[in-house]
Write a structure and sequence with these properties.
The chain is of the alpha/beta class and 244 residues long. It has a domain of 165 residues: 3-Layer(aba) Sandwich (Rossmann fold), CATH 3.40.50.300. Helices cover 30% and strands 25% of the residues. The chain has eight helices and ten strands. A hairpin with a 2-residue loop joins β4 and β5. α3 packs across α4 and α4 packs parallel to α5. The radius of gyration is 18 Å and the shape is globular.
Amino acid sequence: MLKITNLSVEYKGNLALDDISLDIPAATCTGIIGPNGAGKSTLMKSILEMVPVKSGKATIDSQPIKNFKRKIAYVAQRSEIDLSFPITVFDTVLTGTYPNLKLFQKPRKKEKEKTHQALHRLGLDAFKDKPLSDLSGGQLQRVFIARALAQEADYYFLDEPFVGIDMISEKIIIKILEELRQEGKSVIIVHHNLHNVKEYFDYLIILNKKLVCADYIPQCFTNKNLQSAYGEALGNVIIKESEV
């Protein structure tokens, strides 16, 4: 289980996250939702120790996150990635195997085979020799997911993976993420589209700098919780709540 305890993050003198405590069960596909500026990406990055925290901590099975670095795969927002770097699709995905190599060890036949398998699962065989700059948004996102697969992680963190991609790529990615969950992996996704939350996730975190709810979809994805998080920004969106 991933546990977050009394986590606060300060940015330029303002609280980006205010005393967040929650548990994320293993082998779930967890969505993190909330309005713009709610601290969704900040929560993910603070869990992964990518940003400094004011107080609190995150642990996995009561152990520090740093003990699991090789078993955690992170897919950043595309806007944070330098797409001008001259590297092919195959070599990008191959870098996913690096965390499991020894110091100064080069990828071998085994790592290259894992790379081919990951490319195949994401439907990218025909693109393996292309530079990243030649790909569409959806194809790029599939490359980054393939790189995460090549790492053979236990925890997959994805920051807004569905922004600006085509429907075919989104369906392929969702299928892969569901397969990972069925394999006992934990998937955590920063998400922005309320309309497919119930379809994509079984566990949900709703934020607006403070925690509104963290629970399974039927208990958490309610009009009351959404109104609490989004307020007037919610507009006319009304969800049909599950019967429990």
